[in-house]
Amino acid sequence: MAVTPRKEFGFGTQIRKSPFFDATVRWGATDFSVYNHMYIPRSFGDPEENFWNLVNDAILCDVAVERQVEIIGKDAAEFVQLLTPRNLSQCAVGQCKYVLITNAAGGILNDPVLLRVEEDRFWLSLADSDVLLWAQGVATHAGLDVEIREPDVSPLQLQGPKSGDIMAALFGESIRELKYYWLDRLELDGIPLLISRTGWSSELGYELYLLDGSQGNALWEKLMAIGEPLGLKPGHTSTIRRIEGGMLSYHADLDAGVNPFELGLDRLVDLDMAANFIGKTALQRIQQQGVHRRQVGVEIDGNALPGANTQFWPVKRGGHLAGKVTSAVYSPRLKKNIALAMVMQEHSALDTEYEIEVAGEVRRAQVVAKPFYDPNKRITAGATLS
Fold first, then answer.
1. Distance (Å, whole) CA 240 – CA 335
2. What are the structural domain ranges in the chain?
3. pLDDT by residue (tens digit) across 227-241?
């Protein structure tokens, strides 16, 4: 491997580096952004090459920015249910669940993966918002026996069709038995890990939660030493693949002003369960009254977009504002410009046509079904598409 000369970055003490930061710079990270008060690699070069590495082989991503909120105590299960409208009564020890954290108005504060690590120990693996502070505030008035803190836990993502082969080379063939959205505790040459069959990629993959931040460099290098001969590349979360898969990005596609029904995430809301949760009354009202907006998938005409959007683009019909594009990118596999948009309910039907302002240019667009690729999520579950 040709090692990239170390690049110097200017940092303040208020933004943290991950335990893998130095390793990502050695392996070619060129750009970073800030997520959950921590730097995250956003580029190892060409984003299209990163996409093809992901969908054809495997990539290793530093996602330590997915900070963990740990909830411990005899009332931990009751407290976690208070935070989310998803029914967790059947969530077993060792299981993971994609959940929404809602406020009193039914708005979404975060969309983490919940991990039930032990009977009375849960982790929320966060998107980009301060749910640690929210949970601690809720606990102050909940009257429940829980302790809430941020543990020394830092995840890496190993994602792509060859991730299973790489994991088997690292941990043995039995790792292939780990089911989708389940977890296990393992060690790699004395490095303590929790491993889950999850990931933010829409591909087959694993997340390796490092339980000792002092060993971040050692873990990265061990994974690359074993994985590189099997096709592993250093990489970053792929905007192309996540939009193809209809995966949501917090602060772009959802925030505290968006409710689950607008996103079509009704399956994550159980208004009939006996347990109470924050936002239940508001979500009952929203369900009864119906929503005024809907998230839709959109194909945008014209030349390939030069990159992902960095602002919300106005969506119009007949010259009147109908909504906004929240995430957009060109898919080299589909050879189309694809986007997620939030639009008024009356303009959300399939085949509805729009005009979208893109960098001063008006382009035609049309509502299509989402996700744009692998709509039944067979790849993440471990199936191979023909």
1. 11
2. 21-66+152-242, 68-149, 292-370
3. 999 999 999 999 999
